[in-house]
Amino acid sequence: MQTNPEKLTAKERLAIPRQEMPQRPGDVRNKDFKEVNLGLAEQVAIREAQRCLQCKNAKCVSGCPVGIDIPGFIKLVAEGDFLGAAEILRSANDLPAVTGRVCPQEIQCEASCVRCKSDAPVAVGWLERFVADYQMQHGSKTAKLKVKKTGKKVACIGSGPSGITCAGQLARFGYDVTIFEAFHRPGGVLIYGIPEFRMPKEIVDAEIENLKRLGVNVETNVIVGRTVTIPQLINEEKFDAVFIAVGAGLPEFMDIPGENFKGVYSANEYLTRANLMEAYNPEAETPIIRGQRVCVIGGGNTAMDAVRTSKRLGAIESTIVYRRSQAEMPARKEEVHHAEEENIRFEMLTAPVEVLGDDAGWVKGLKCIRMQLGEADQSGRRRPVPIPGSEFTIDCDLVIVAIGTGANPLLTKTTPGLKLNKWDYIETDENLMTSIPGVFAGGDIVRGSATVILAMGDGKKDAQNIHNYLSAKQ
Predict the structure, then answer these.
(1) Domain parsing of the chain, residue ranges
(2) Over the stretch 86-126, which tens digit does the pLDDT of each residue have?
(3) CATH of range 5-138; options 1.10.760.10, 3.40.50.40, 3.40.50.150, 1.10.1060.10
(4) How far apart are CA 446 and CA 440, in angstroms?
(5) pTM of the complete model
(6) Is 153-249+407-472 a domain of CATH 3.50.50.60?
(7) I want to staple 121 with a disulfide (CB 3.0 to 4.6 A). Which of 92, 113, 137, 211 is the partner?
(8) pLDDT tens figures, 450-459
């Protein structure tokens, strides 16, 4: 399919409204784990791409953590050359089908679009998803690399977004790369953290296969820090460099009375059981509590994932409990909107003070207090302040805590000489190298919990820095 978008004037492009992404109805999709958004049709994608003004100084590119040539790939979409657009995407991004679904484009590339001044930005994320999906359905598989081998090998610890990106880039540089993954299935947070209705596992599996075709070796069920240590990888396995991309997976709790009652989960455990271990499948052997009345504490994307998962697992009422107002919620607006459509209840300006339990030690309620917003704190958001005498109780039989994660010490405590900051995240220099020569780190284990695309940006930078480091040693 070919079009000639160059005949369109800037005025004609500006007259095209932003196209709509079709999605499944909220009261239907909240009963299963099928994907919410349905993707763009070809003609709709072309029409949306024609909205792009093809700016000479495209600010959208600088808003992308991995530096995608956004005008370039969108131009080819407008021309109907979808496979050509996919090649441009994949030259900068190893996971376009992933980032097209979960990347917060609204605060990155799309926020920099000049069309924001007049109407709505070009739907970069939707077009990215369309192109990546089209290539998977119609394009040829990624060919095996024909690169000159360097004779050096690199270990990537963790197969999440940062590890995948770094490994793919290093393979293109000619290194023998091995990824070590602690779980039985590669993909990291894309597999165990993000639910099927947002990120179909077949998409992640396809991207892992692309990685393997690049020559990357993936070893699962290897817990670095327990199965093997970083010193062993360097001294015994003879890896020339190591990249640490283990994420930040240590759950944080609220430290309030009753958190030890049965029926209190961390969001990490809850989502891992539901996603990686497929507890949503009645035939799966992994147990999971299917609460009837569920309270999820937090306001980020993880909280949205957990509360929407609980609804799909049969909860009569699933409630978000958040101590600030909706305007301060860190979750993507799209995810909040989708939750509202799925009949999720929101208790805003509400802070838990105690988990209540019955005589058998099971959760029976969540005691809360109303809050009001005071002065701004270090995050720039107004600080929530308790309202005296406003305590009340929410009846529930399951509480899921989604207030953040910290650095898991399993790897760091078994790596002598590895310098950590006061929050126990790994410290790196300007080249993202740790205090140990040849050992680099990126993603959440360095920056704390962040987005998929920021972790990928770190992985890409680390690959270049590792290449520079090893090249200088020759």
Answers:
(1) 5-138, 153-249+407-472, 253-403
(2) 999 988 888 899 999 998 888 889 999 999 888 899 999 99
(3) 1.10.1060.10
(4) 10
(5) 0.90
(6) yes
(7) 113
(8) 888 889 999 9
